[in-house]
Amino acid sequence: MSRILPFFFLISFGLFAQEESNKRFFSEVLSLNLDSYNTKVDEALVRGEFSYAKSLFDSLVKNHLQGSFIDPLKFEPYNSSIVSTEEIEKPTIISTYASWCIPNKGEIPVLNKMAQKYGDMIDFVVLFWDQKKTVRKLAKQFDTNIQIVYVDEVQNGHMQTVKLLKHALGMSLSFVIAADGEILDINRRPANKMNLSENQIFNQNITFLTRQIAAINIDLNINIHELPESLATF
User: InterPro entries, from UniProt (predicted)?
Assistant: First the structure.
């Protein structure tokens, strides 16, 4: 028995090491597909095919980025216990913000409500690409169940990771991440649309976040039929 146990642990460690080495990180996968994606998007925009350009983003996420793992990235915590993507221990939704990127009117109130309702199962993280003094002003809008972190590019040593996370796919992204760091989904949050009523704006954001939470269904026992569909069921 004493000989079997060390052998068992050796095999287990070897399998774990192999699994770790087979992980594909987000930045690696994105780098391999980014040039082709940008070319196709540029050509679609020139032709005025805006819906097709959007579908290219969805295709990039579904066919390539889903299943990759979030890169190691250190944050500066503002009111958060999480200081790195490597410290993620339960399903997490990371929403990226910047001071010059104005969210639509219903976005933050809906995010606050969702964090209050599902915060025991899911970590909601708002990541600001900004300086601390700016974060201090903007953080007051968010519920205390939301963890606020920031990355100051001037002081950050993970520039390649920041470049790909922040700049490559644009701002206003929302990452859905499993407890082991696997990326389950990436989406652009709803844009500002002046022709929508207040209720439509709120319902648009509820639909968006409901789909984000539903993506965690493979990682948590969440009944997607109990998720809110509109303000009436919130």
Answer: Thioredoxin-like_sf
- The structural domains of the chain, ordered by start, are 24-68 (no CATH), 71-233 (3.40.30.10)
Cα(127)–Cα(61) distance, integer angstroms = 20
Rounded to two decimals, what is the model's pTM?
0.81
> DSSP letters of 129-189?
SS-HHHHHHHGGGS-TTEEEEE--TTT-S-HHHHIIIIISS-SSEEEEE-TTSBEEEEEEP
Residue (of 63, 66, 67, 115) closest to 93 by Cα position: 115
Q: Would you tell me the crossing angle of helices 107-118 and 198-214 to the nearest 10 degrees?
A: 40
